[in-house]
Amino acid sequence: MKIYQVGGSLRDELLGLPVADRDWVVVGASPQQMIDAGYRPVGRDFPVFLHPRTHEEYALARTERKTAPGYTGFVFHSAPDVTLEEDLLRRDFTINAMARDADDAAAPIIDPHGGRADLAARVLRHVSPAFAEDPVRILRGARFAARFGFAVAPETLALMRRMTGAGEVDALVAERVWQELSRGLMYANPQAMFELLERCGALGRIIPEITQTAPDGPPMRPLTMAARHGMTLAQRYAALCAWLAPAAVKVMSERLRAPAECRELALLAARQRDALLHAGHLDAAQLAELVRVTDGLRQPGRFRSLVQVVGAVAEGACPPVDYGRAKARVLAAFQAFRNVDAGRIAATLAAPAQIPDALRQARESAVAAALEEAGLL
Ligand code: CTP
What we know:
The protein has helices at residues 8-14, 31-36, 84-89, 115-121, 136-148, 154-165, 174-185, 190-199, 203-206, 208-211, 221-228, 233-241, 246-256, 260-277, 284-293, 300-316, 324-339, 342-347, 355-373; strands at 2-6, 23-27, 40-41, 48-50, 57-60, 62-66, 74-78, 99-101, 123-124, 151-152. It is built from 19 helices and 10 strands. The longest helix has 19 residues, at 355-373. It is elongated. A 6-stranded mixed beta sheet has the order 3-4-5-2-1-8. The mean pLDDT is 94. The chain is of the alpha+beta class. Helix content is 52%, strand content 10%.
């Protein structure tokens, strides 16, 4: 039995990036030999084992063959006679298809497909036609583009286009799509993920709502700005969706099974984008109403997030919108609205039916006073 370090951990190490968990491939062993050596079998579809102490993943060398469209239609062949080279050949990108002897960190990198040269040239290139057997690899490629800023080799882009044309991405399950998209959104250049998906024709299949926004492609600059400011996943997703119609955001978020936090912030951004962008022109009553409809009282954190997202939208608009005064007015109104003591006002009234009107008036007055005090009226 021979063990090699493979895949993303080796790639990240060569790039000088921190490595969280390492993957290993085992050549010349049977599942029983692994179990006898103390490894715990975990693979449902593939022969994968966890190391008894480090809990890192050890996979028996395997070859794969596709049997049906989509993600699940695989049969695999794993036997002690499957070689390391055969295992590397079924992997997605050359930069992910390198290996190194597990016993010797100084051993030369085993690199039959030119992964090191592609790392140096900053290129994503598929290893073999077997790439086409797994459509998740299109999403992975887009995610790596967002993470590393690498270009895609022309032959790989052409293959991705053929896969998309053959309907391969249509079979991807929502969870898998969101898993990749949400990881890609958190990288330094998330717009690169959507640009690559667009170029290979997959974006219109996965998120048609985005491609329908503008004739010259989806507006990506708000997302770029959100990433530049280190915003959260929900904020980046909201920045991506901010120019869409609220109904489209709803449909898209449901199809992608986006988490509630992402879905709600994106919906708010789509609904309130214009009011916030132009809050420089709203009066006290309109500002108080904005805080009310966005539920700023009960969800203050979400309200502040929304204000920041619209900041990214303003910066990313073409030409950029000056949001400084609008933002200052919104935040002053928000603070004044929150400071109104609803309990005290209710206690002064004779009938409960009077409460909503009295509260509204008190909040409007508080907002107006705060704006005046801050010189923002
Ligand atoms: N792999 C593949 N095709 C896939 C998924 C994985 O060929 N659809 C191979 C690649 O060789 C990859 C390795 O399995 O490097 C490990 O996969 P995984 O841990 O999912 O991803 P990483 O490449 O390690 O990348 P990340 O840093 O995103 O985890």
